[in-house]
Design a protein that fits this description.
435 residues, alpha/beta, Rossmann fold, 8-stranded mixed β-sheet, 8 strands, elongated
């Protein structure tokens, strides 16, 4: 398979067939109807196995090249039904008929590995994309391993998954497994199909013996929402979540926030768009996601001063255990606060920041010299100690060196939390003293 080409992988879980009511050889069949609620319907040939109908639909209607057709079933799955994937002039040949009957008889009680292997070899002479895997009903982890084996690490893939047949737990687990696979292989898209035999009554225009086919893009949408929501909750990176609810690419806005710029206009635009989306959302879960985002961006917008925004971001990352970001932002928020209190202009300038840092150190020295009344923000010895420890730990963490203060802050998370909590409490006091 070419490494430069995106491969189309069809995965189907094959189940146990329903024996014919008239006791003749074979299984009950149905005509699967694709696009049942549209004018251009596609009615597949009768089959007991939906995977065959899907394979033919993708090839004949969508003109898709299927690079691999992976079939996963148990020892009693309807493997014999796969004769229908062969060209019509081959299906009734003597050799195929004999082999198919042997498979059919064995699968009633449990097909042997050598028989299934021989059947696969017979079929792949005509359809080389086929690959069979037999698993036990509760051998769920093996199913995910199969997909890892079949999809190379350096390949690009579109995955089509048929979740119609088999014991219900198998396609459910496979659905989650394919979502996990997105993080282990390069998967560009996932399409999920279901041959909904029991839903025929929900579609008009179907004839007796026909079953509608449903493509379920909603599952992929939910997975993308889950992924982007988890990313936002764990890291604060809101770009994928905004994309999922239709607000476009906000990468530049996020970058400005990360770089401590002031994208106030962009944030106001996002807030207005969220207000519009809230009114037009179709589902309650969409509205709740929008409410969460609206609250976060409104809180950002309320922080007029840079030190306020930096402090809020520090709290945000601390709650999500991104300790280095929280540490750096909290210390820098203190520096910018000193610049504000001492009316040092252009606090984005390096020299201005150094002037503010000098004011901070001066206040620490005043406390040590028993002259806290000269200070505006630091009043107590324990406060001065906290600021010094915070600076030492910040420098050591950023540079990977040993701190001048307590080494435990870098090696013991509980000790580190005590320091951060003390520094945050001190920052709140400083805000009150500023006001």
């Amino acid at each position: 398979m070419s490494k430069n080409k995106t491969a189309n992988i069809l995965i189907s879980v094959i189940g146990k067939g329903r024996l014919k009511k008239d006791q003749t050889v074979g299984y009950e069949q149905t005509e699967y109807v694709f696009n049942p609620d549209k004018s251009k319907k596609y009615v597949a040939s009768k089959t007991a196995f939906f995977g065959i109908a899907l394979y033919k639909y993708l090839k004949e209607v969508e003109k898709m090249q299927i690079d691999k057709f992976i079939l996963i079933g148990t020892d009693q799955s309807a493997w014999s039904e796969l004769y229908q994937i062969l060209p019509r002039d081959v299906q009734n040949s003597e050799d195929i008929t004999a082999m198919c009957l042997k498979v059919y008889e064995e699968e009633k009680k449990g097909i042997q590995d050598n028989t299934l292997s021989a059947w696969q070899n017979t079929l792949t002479k005509y359809v080389p994309q086929l690959k069979f895997y037999k698993i036990k009903p509760l051998e769920l982890g093996r199913g995910i391993d199969i997909l890892l084996e079949e999809l190379d690490k350096d390949g690009d893939y579109n995955v089509i998954f048929d979740m119609t047949h088999a014991f219900r737990n198998i396609p459910v687990v496979f659905s989650y497994g394919i979502m996990l696979l997105k993080y282990l292989r390069r998967i560009n898209s996932i399409r999920i199909f279901y041959g909904a035999h029991e839903m025929a009554g929900y579609f008009s225009g179907l004839e007796n013996g026909q079953s509608p086919v449903i493509e379920i893009p909603f599952i992929d949408k939910l997975v993308r929402l889950i992924e982007s929501m988890a990313t936002f909750q764990n890291s604060g990176y809101f770009v994928p979540l905004l994309k999922q609810i239709g607000l476009g690419d906000r990468e530049k806005t996020y970058f400005k926030l990360e770089m401590n710029r002031q994208p106030r206009r962009e944030i106001e635009e996002i807030i207005k768009e969220l207000e519009h989306k809230q009114k037009s959302a179709n589902y309650a879960f969409e509205k709740e996601i929008i409410e969460i985002l609206y609250g976060e961006f409104s809180e950002m917008n309320r922080q007029e001063k840079l030190f306020q925004r930096m402090y809020k971001r520090s709290q945000f990352f601390y709650e999500r255990r991104q300790y280095l970001k929280a540490l750096v932002l909290l210390y820098e928020a203190m520096i910018v606060l000193f610049a504000d209190v001492y009316n040092i202009k252009d606090n984005m300038n390096y020299i201005s920041r150094e002037d503010a840092r000098a004011k901070l150190k001066s206040e620490i020295q005043n406390v040590k010299n028993k002259k806290p009344d000269l200070n505006k923000l630091i009043k107590e010895q324990d406060e001065a100690d906290t600021v010094e420890e915070l600076e030492y730990v910040r420098n050591a963490a950023v540079h990977g060196s040993s701190p001048r203060g307590n080494q435990e802050y870098l090696e013991n998370v509980e000790k580190f939390k005590l320091l951060l909590n003390s520094a945050m409490n001190l920052f709140e006091k400083m805000l009150q003293r500023r006001n």
